[in-house]
Amino acid sequence: MNGFVAWLQTVYTFLALVPFVSFFAAWGIVYGIFRDKKKATYAAIDVTTLFLIGSVSVMTQSLFQSGLGLWLVVLLFLVVGGLLGNMQNRIKGKINPVKIARTLLRLGFVVLSACYVLLLFIGIGKYIVAS
Fold this sequence. Notes:
The chain has helices spanning about 1-15, 20-35, 35-65, 70-90, 95-130. Helix 1 crosses helix 3 (about 35-65). The chain is mainly alpha-helical. Helix content is about 90%, strand content about 0%.
């Protein structure tokens, strides 16, 4: 069992460090099953967001020596989820948690992708300056 857990941890670490690989892998798998590009793209975005959360957290921790990266991402998701739920309640009178989760994952993909690229360039710059 420990070998399987270690293997899963290794796979997650690789996919979190290189999130575009998880995007293309998820897109290819879903497209191969359903033959629908739109569904494949949305599924790939949703899966990649989960890996981007870990990636941005670890990059923030390694660049700024602060353990707040994960908690800031969680706080961002909770605040935006609350705002989306409030908006749905005001407009429609009821809350649809599935739509909120989908919207959070897709907005999170955009924001976390931008953060990933920004942190990547900051890390490269810090490495060049340190060399």
